[in-house]
Automatic annotation (TrEMBL):
Residues 64-149 form the PSP1 C-terminal domain. GO terms for cellular component: cytoplasm. Signal peptide: none annotated. NCBIfam families: RicT_YaaT_fam. This is Cell fate regulator YaaT (PSP1 superfamily).
Amino acid sequence: MLIVKFKYPDTEKTGLATSSERFTYGQRVVVKTDRGEEVVKVLNSYPFDEEALRKFNIDKNSLYKVIRLATEEDINRATENELFAVDALEVCKEKVEKHQLPMKLIRAYATLNKERIVFYFTAESRVDFRQLVRDLAAHFRTRIELRQIGVRDEVKMLGAVGMCGRVCCCKDFLECFDSVSLNLARLQGLPPNPAKLSGACGRLMCCLKFEEANYYVRQFLPEIGETVETPEGKGKVADINVPLEIMTVELEDGRKKHFPIRLFLTEEQWNEYIEKLKEKQDDRFKCFTRAGVIGNENSQGAEESSE
């Protein structure tokens, strides 16, 4: 048995499903989820590893099941559903105005057989949309779900361009969101100014988190200005480049030399640092989410079936 990691078409988040067949990146498969049958994009296939599942606290019984490789009919129906969702979003907007609800609709999504239509929205506070859900269920005659999402989820769904000039990392390749704090900026020697470190969503940029594991080694290294012993004599630490693992030392004769940080660590410290980097790399199932679950930001949802 294999585990297939896939991407949801609406939230861009990842899920896991079991399969007897190996699929490769980019293939479309039909998966039976909490919401019904969905056409999803395969990210990778892994051998079934119970130890890895335990490590990421995943119950194997919670995994979905791949039904089949998506046929041409499945893909055509999914495309038709995308067009249907655009029209459904307009209907929902009209009903939101009718009920005068303080919410901003982001996206609509319909499962393969239209067993469920999901509407995503943002709002500054919790919204009582129970009557809206009833109206939508009566209009579409199917199960309706309204889900409030956070600003980071909004950018991941719609996409944006960051201050670096590239597509935002959350849209481009990130599978889920990690907690980001100003301590990460201080750790990397950046000015702790939220205005300069915020992304398109208004929150601290996700990229501040990327090198956190690398900076774990900083606690074992001397401070700037501290005297150290090098292969070429004593000197003062002038700079430490953690990503490159290089320490610049100003020797007593005035020369500045670069040394690998490995020279200034004990065997135990170096091994501890390497283990931390390995933890960062092994994130195969880290971002597994159930269908309809939006990242790890606060969300609000409700649903109702047609009568």
